[in-house]
C-alpha cells in the first residue's frame, strides 16, 4: 500500500502537476503565437463596447445560454457537472489551507458534516453527469461522432469521481489529515500520514490519485483545453 | 454565322435570373458532342455578358449572342 | 494516393492556420449540441451534415500531421490521411454547407464551423476537387473584370434598356442609369440582370440620390468556391471602380454573401482600409423612408407578409431592424417568423448550393424547417433580400405547393411609391 501511494500520490503527482503546468503553458504559447485571422468572425448582434464584449464572453462561457435553448437536457447535465466540479475544486482547496471563518462558525464537527454533505452532493452530481455523457455517446449520431479520446476522458473522470466518492462516503479520514499529506508535497518533503496508509481509504486515495495523475497529464493534449480556450473563442464571437 | 447552324440541343432559359442561364449552359455543354451546338434563349440581359465570359474562360465558343424581340438568343459551340 | 500528395494536401491546413482555427480544432468537445442547429442535418438526418462531423474531418487530418498527441497516439483521435475516402465525404459536407453559422450561434464555445470549412475548401481545391460549377462561375466573373472592354458595350446597352423602363415607371424622361459617373456619392453594385437594377434605379431617382451603377455584379462565386484569391479579384472589380470614381459609399444590392464580402471580408483580404463606407441597399432605403426622401403608401402590401433574415445579412451581416422597418412601413399585416433574427433558420439556399445540382435533393429536404416556419405564420408573401434565398424559397414553394409570393424588398418599395409613370414596376 505504501509503495502504491508513493507512486500515485507522491511522485506521480509531482510528474502530473509538472506536465500539466508545462503542457498548458505550451498550449497557451502555441495559441498566442499563431497569428489571428484578419477576417473578423463575429456574429451579430454584437455589444458595442469592449466591456460589453467582455461581459458577453463571460456570460456565454459560464452560462452558455444559447446551448441551453437548443438542447436543455444536455445543458442541464453539463451545467451540473461543471458547477459540481467547481464546488469540488473549491472543497479540495481545504487540503492546502483551511478556509477562514467557516470552521469557526460551524465548529470542527459541523465543518466535517458540511464538507461531507457538500462533497457528497458534488461527487454524486458529477458521477451522474459523467454517466449521462457516457450513455449519450452510445447511440446514434453521438456514437458516430465519438472518438476514443472522448471515452478515455470520460473513463478517467469516472475513475477520479468514483474513487473520490469512495473516500467521501466510506472513509473516516478528514481534510486535516489529507492536508498533512498535501502540504508535505508542496514543501517537497513528501510523507504519507499513517492514518491514511492504514485506513480503508489508502487504496482509494491511491487510485483516485492515479486517475487524477493520468487526467492531468493528458489534459493539455486533449479537448479539455476548452476550459481555457472557450474564453477566447467566445470573445471571437463578438469581434 | 446564319441561323441555319445545326443545333444539337435547345435550352429554354426564359425567366431564369443570372447566373442561372450560364449555369444551365455549362451543365448542358457535356450533353452535346464536341463540335456540337447549344441554342439557348434567355430573358435576363445579364446573360449577354455572362455566357460569353463563361465561354471565353472555359474555352468554348459563342457563335451568336443577339437580342431578338426582347429575348436573348445564343448559339454556343462545344470546343472540347 | 502517394505519401507526397497526402503530405501536400495536409499542408494546406498549416498554410491556412490562424489562431481562431487552431482553437476551434483544439477545443471542440464533440458534444454535438450543434446537431439540431443545422438545417441540413435536421432536414436530412444525414450524419455527414452534422456540423461537428464536418469539422471533425479536418481535425482528423490535423491530428495526424500537426498535433503532438495525435502523432503520438493517432488511434485516440481516429487521426487519418486526406485520402480519397476522406476527401469524398469532405467534398459533400463542405460544399453543401451554406455557411449560415447557425451552429456557431448555439455552440457553447462559439466554434465557427464555416471557418474550419474554408480550410476544407482550400484543401479540396488543392486536390483538384474544388466545385467545378463554382469555379467556372468565378472564372467567368474574373474574365469580365480582366477584359471589361469586351463586355462593356453589351452591358451598357443592357443598362440603357433598363433605363428606358425606369423612365416609363417614374414618368420622368430624364431619369438615368449613370455608369462611370465620377464624383457620384454612391456606387451601386447590383447583380447581373435587370431585376436587381431596375427597382434600385427608380428608388435612387425618386430620392434624388447622386449615384452610379457598377459595370460588375456583386455576386461572388469565388467566395463560395473557397478560393480567397479569386474571391478578392471578383470583389476588386467593383472596389477598384469605387476608388477610381471617388464615391462616398458602395451600396450592395439585395444579396446576402455579396454584402458580407464587401462589408467584412474585402478589407481583410486586400489589407487596405476602404476610403468609403459599405452599406446594403436596405440600409439606404430605410434611411430614405425615415428622412422622407421617398414616400411609400403604408397599406400598399395586401395580405399577410413575413420576412426571412438571410444568414449573411442577419446573423452574419448585422441587419435585423432595417428590413423589418421597411416592410412594416408598407404592410398592415406583418408577421415575423419564429425563431427570427440571429436565430433565424437558414432557408437552405446559401453558400452557392443552388448552383450545384448534385445537392438538389438534400437542398430541398434541408428547407423543411423554413417551410414549417412559413406555414406557422400563415403569411402569403415573404420578403427575402437575397437572391439565393429567393431561388431556394421558390423551389420550396413549388415542392410543397405553398401559396406564397416571394419577393425582394425593393420591388415592394417601388410598388408602394406614388409614381407618375404609366408602366407598372413589375415587368
| Oligomer classification | heterotrimer
Cα shape of chain A: globular
Q: In DSSP terms, counting alpha (H) and pi (I) runs of 4 or more, how many helices of chain C? A: 20
The chain-level structural class of chain C is: mainly alpha
Helix content of chain C: 40-55%
Shape of chain C: globular
Strand content bin of chain A? under 5%
Task: Provide the spatial order of strands within the biggest beta sheet of chain C.
Answer: 2-1-3-4
Structural class of chain A: mainly alpha
Q: Percentage of helical residues of chain A?
A: over 70%
Average pLDDT reading of chain C:
96
Strand content of chain C: 5-15%
Terminal Cα separation of chain C, in Å? 55 Å
Quickly give the CATH architecture of chain A: Up-down Bundle
By CATH reckoning, the class of chain A would read Mainly Alpha
Radius of gyration of chain A, whole Å: 20 Å
Order of helices and strands of chain C: HHHHHHHHHHEHEHHEHEHEHHHEHEH
Q: How many structural domains of chain C? A: 3
How does this model look, in words?
The complex is a heterotrimer of chains A (239), B (80) and C (427). Chain A has 239 residues and is mostly helical. Helix content of chain A is 76%, strand content 0%. Chain A is globular and about 60 Å long. Chain A starts with a helix and ends with a helix. The model of chain A has no long low-confidence stretch (mean pLDDT 96). With 80 residues, chain B is an alpha+beta fold. Chain B has one domain: Translation Initiation Factor IF3 (2-Layer Sandwich), CATH 3.30.110.40. In chain B, 28% of the residues lie in helices and 32% in strands. Chain B has a four-stranded mixed beta sheet with strand order 1-2-4-3, with helices on one face. In chain B, a hairpin with a 2-residue loop joins strand 3 (61-68) and strand 4 (71-77). The radius of gyration of chain B is 11 Å and the shape is globular. In chain B, 41% of the residues are buried. Chain C is mainly α and 427 residues long. Chain C has three domains: 3-129, Fumarate Reductase Iron-sulfur Protein, Chain B, domain 2 (Orthogonal Bundle); 134-290, no CATH class; 305-416, Rossmann fold (3-Layer(aba) Sandwich). In chain C, 53% of the residues lie in helices and 6% in strands. In chain C, the strands form two sheets. Chain C has a four-stranded parallel beta sheet with strand order 2-1-3-4. Chain C has a three-stranded parallel beta sheet with strand order 5-6-7, sandwiched between helices. The longest helix of chain C has 23 residues, at 148-170. In chain C, 60% of the residues are buried. The model of chain C has no long low-confidence stretch (mean pLDDT 96). Chains in contact: A-C, B-C. At the A-C interface, helix 1, helix 3, helix 4, helix 6 and helix 7 of A face helix 2, helix 4, helix 7 and helix 14 of C.
Amino acid at each position: 500500500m505504501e509503495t502504491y501511494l508513493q507512486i500515485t500520490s507522491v511522485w506521480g503527482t509531482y510528474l502530473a502537476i509538472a506536465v500539466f503546468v508545462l503542457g498548458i503553458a505550451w498550449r497557451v504559447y502555441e495559441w498566442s503565437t499563431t497569428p489571428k485571422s484578419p477576417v473578423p468572425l463575429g456574429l451579430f448582434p454584437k455589444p458595442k463596447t469592449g466591456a460589453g464584449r467582455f461581459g458577453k464572453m463571460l456570460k456565454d462561457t459560464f452560462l452558455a445560454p444559447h446551448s441551453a435553448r437548443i438542447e436543455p437536457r444536455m445543458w442541464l447535465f453539463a451545467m451540473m457537472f461543471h458547477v459540481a466540479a467547481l464546488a469540488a475544486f473549491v472543497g479540495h482547496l481545504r487540503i492546502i489551507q483551511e478556509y477562514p471563518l467557516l470552521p469557526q462558525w460551524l465548529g470542527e464537527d459541523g465543518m466535517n458534516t458540511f464538507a461531507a454533505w457538500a462533497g457528497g452532493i458534488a461527487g454524486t452530481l458529477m458521477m451522474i453527469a459523467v454517466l449521462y455523457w457516457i450513455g449519450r455517446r452510445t447511440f446514434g449520431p453521438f456514437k458516430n461522432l465519438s472518438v476514443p479520446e472522448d471515452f478515455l476522458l470520460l473513463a478517467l473522470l469516472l475513475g477520479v469521481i468514483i474513487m473520490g466518492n469512495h473516500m467521501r462516503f466510506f472513509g473516516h479520514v478528514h481534510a486535516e489529515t489529507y492536508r498533512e499529506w498535501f502540504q508535505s508535497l508542496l514543501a517537497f518533503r513528501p510523507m504519507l500520514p499513517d492514518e491514511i496508509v492504514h485506513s480503508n481509504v489508502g487504496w482509494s486515495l491511491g487510485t483516485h490519485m492515479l486517475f487524477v495523475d493520468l487526467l492531468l497529464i493528458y489534459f493539455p493534449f486533449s479537448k479539455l483545453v476548452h476550459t481555457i480556450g472557450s474564453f477566447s473563442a467566445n470573445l471571437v464571437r463578438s469581434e | 454565322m446564319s441561323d441555319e447552324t445545326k443545333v444539337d440541343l435547345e435550352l429554354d432559359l426564359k425567366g431564369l435570373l443570372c447566373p442561372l442561364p450560364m449555369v444551365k449552359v455549362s451543365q448542358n455543354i457535356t450533353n452535346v458532342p464536341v463540335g456540337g451546338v447549344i441554342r439557348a434563349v434567355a430573358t435576363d440581359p445579364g446573360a449577354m455578358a455572362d455566357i460569353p465570359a463563361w465561354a471565353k474562360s472555359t474555352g468554348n465558343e459563342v457563335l451568336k449572342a443577339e437580342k431578338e424581340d426582347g429575348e436573348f438568343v445564343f448559339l454556343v459551340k462545344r470546343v472540347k | 494516393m502517394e505519401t507526397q500528395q497526402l503530405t501536400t494536401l495536409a499542408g494546406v491546413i498549416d498554410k491556412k492556420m490562424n489562431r481562431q482555427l487552431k482553437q476551434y480544432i483544439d477545443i471542440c468537445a464533440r458534444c454535438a449540441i450543434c446537431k439540431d442547429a443545422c438545417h441540413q442535418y435536421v432536414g436530412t438526418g444525414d450524419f455527414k451534415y452534422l456540423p461537428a462531423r464536418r469539422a471533425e474531418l479536418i481535425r482528423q487530418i490535423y491530428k495526424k500531421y500537426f498535433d503532438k498527441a495525435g502523432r503520438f497516439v493517432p488511434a485516440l483521435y481516429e487521426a487519418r490521411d486526406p485520402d480519397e475516402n476522406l476527401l469524398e465525404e469532405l467534398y459533400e459536407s463542405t460544399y453543401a454547407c451554406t455557411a449560415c453559422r447557425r451552429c456557431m450561434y448555439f455552440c457553447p464555445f462559439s466554434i465557427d464551423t464555416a471557418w474550419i470549412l474554408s480550410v476544407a475548401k482550400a484543401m479540396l481545391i488543392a486536390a483538384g476537387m474544388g466545385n467545378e460549377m463554382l469555379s467556372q462561375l468565378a472564372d467567368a466573373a474574373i474574365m469580365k473584370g480582366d477584359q471589361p472592354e469586351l463586355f462593356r458595350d453589351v452591358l451598357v446597352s443592357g443598362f440603357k434598356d433598363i433605363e428606358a423602363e425606369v423612365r416609363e415607371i417614374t414618368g420622368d424622361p430624364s431619369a438615368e442609369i449613370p455608369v462611370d459617373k465620377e464624383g457620384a456619392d454612391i456606387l451601386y453594385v447590383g447583380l447581373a440582370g435587370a431585376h436587381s437594377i431596375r427597382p434600385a434605379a427608380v428608388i435612387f431617382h425618386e430620392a434624388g440620390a447622386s449615384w452610379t451603377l457598377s459595370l460588375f455584379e456583386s455576386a461572388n462565386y469565388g467566395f463560395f468556391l473557397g478560393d480567397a484569391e479569386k474571391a478578392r479579384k471578383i470583389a476588386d472589380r467593383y472596389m477598384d471602380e469605387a476608388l477610381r470614381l471617388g464615391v462616398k459609399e458602395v451600396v450592395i444590392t439585395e444579396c446576402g454573401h455579396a454584402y458580407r464580402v464587401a462589408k467584412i471580408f474585402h478589407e481583410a483580404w486586400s489589407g487596405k482600409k476602404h476610403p468609403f463606407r459599405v452599406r446594403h441597399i436596405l440600409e439606404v432605403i430605410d434611411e430614405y423612408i425615415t428622412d422622407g426622401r421617398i414616400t411609400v403608401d403604408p397599406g400598399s402590401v395586401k395580405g399577410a407578409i413575413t420576412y426571412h433574415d438571410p444568414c449573411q445579412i442577419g446573423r452574419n451581416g448585422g441587419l435585423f431592424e432595417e428590413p423589418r422597418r421597411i416592410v412594416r412601413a408598407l404592410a398592415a399585416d406583418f408577421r415575423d417568423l419564429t425563431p427570427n433574427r440571429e436565430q433565424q433558420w437558414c432557408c437552405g439556399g446559401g453558400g452557392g448550393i443552388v448552383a450545384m445540382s448534385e445537392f438538389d435533393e438534400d437542398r430541398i429536404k434541408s428547407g423543411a424547417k423554413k417551410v414549417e416556419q412559413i406555414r406557422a405564420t400563415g403569411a402569403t408573401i415573404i420578403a427575402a433580400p437575397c437572391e439565393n434565398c429567393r431561388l431556394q424559397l421558390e423551389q420550396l414553394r413549388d415542392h410543397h405547393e405553398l401559396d406564397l409570393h416571394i419577393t425582394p424588398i425593393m420591388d415592394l418599395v417601388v410598388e408602394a411609391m406614388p409614381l407618375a409613370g404609366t408602366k407598372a414596376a413589375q415587368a
